[in-house]
Amino acid sequence: MTAESTSRWPAWLTPNLRVLCAVSFLADTASELVYPVLPIFLTTVLGAPTAVVGGVEGAAEATAALTKILVGRLGDRRRKRPLIAVGYALAALGKIIVAAAVAWPLVLAGRCVDRLGKGVRNAPRDALLMVGADPTRRGRIFGVHRAADTAGAVVGPALGLGLYELLGHQIRPLLMIAVLPAFAAVALVAAVRENPATATTFTAESAAADTPARLPARLRTVIAVLTVFSLVNFPDSLLLLRAHQLGLSVAGVIAGYIAYNAAYALLSYPAGALSDSLPRHFVFAGGLVCFAVGYLGLGLANSPTWVFVVLPVYGGFAAATDGVGKAWIADLAPAARQSTAQGIYQGLTGAAVLVAGLWAGLFWQTDGRMPLLISGGVALALAAVLALTGSRLSPAGAARGDIAPAGR
Predict the structure, then answer these.
(1) What gap in Å lies between CA 106 and CA 36, rounded to an integer?
(2) Is 217 buried (19+), middle (13-18) or exposed (0-12) by CB count in 10 A?
(3) Angle between helix 104-130 and helix 138-166 axes, rounded to 10 deg
(4) Are 53 and 42 in contact (CB under 8 A)?
(5) pLDDT in tens, 173-220
(6) What percent of the chain has pLDDT above 90?
């Protein structure tokens, strides 16, 4: 009997995957403890105008998007674990700055430092998850990682809501508490193991090859398609604003956000596993249908009760596209360009979400329902296109990666 057969963990659930799941859980607990109350902190405690809320988040996400593209390439040339550690450390530092802020520009600085950390860590982390990974289990790998990450997005807001009530609606102590799990995540990165040989030596030749144009044509097409979709996928803060407009209290909005993240966490692994059996574009298309239900539902709803119906469905969108999209990119990217591909994909789609937030915010001033209806309609159309023609964007050959899927 082999060591693998006696292990209580499946072979694809590697020690690095388990550690990085725990790291992401702690980091997301910290981030999501802060996220739902940050608009209230800015406008109520610091007296910032409402427009500053969108500006702060827009600048933060732009910082993350640009950094992902730049650091993605670096992750293919250097060891990944130091980049991951620096990224989580910057996120923790950003939370300290936010907690200590006495004026909204400091919150802007803190959020940008926080998102800079996200940009530094994400692509190298996702590439490290693929080192030595079974190509037929990529969906499961990303699915379980997203499930662990999003479990933090359930625990964080729930903990925040409880502490918000326990602390007499005082927000600043809440922001200080969020620093603790953030630093715990940084400490746990020390348990990640990386073979130095997996880092590519940087040469002039590799620098010339390390451009989007040198990535496979099919991969570039997938990145382009998913970036176009992201132009109608505006930030979730606007969805929470719509929930508040429908009549939910602050506590109700946080509860709705928890329901969304709970669905996201519970469905991430099943969706990832399904994408290891079915073509990934089918699963992704199903996620777009969930997106359309969420957006159209919130746009047409006339009662706050509907928020708790459509937001969990919308969680199915994130579950069927986030990890599945990363697995799709991993399928098409060369082994030596995994971090580059993930960085470009995540950076461009993140920048597109920022653009979506800008146009949706402009429409929102006239009619808060219109952006939801437009985006929901576009998502339905794209779901149909992917379902019918997505096979052209799947990996060439009979299998993903270098080996045939087991059991098929």
Answers:
(1) 18
(2) exposed
(3) 150
(4) yes
(5) 889 999 999 999 999 999 888 776 555 544 444 444 445 447 888 999
(6) 37
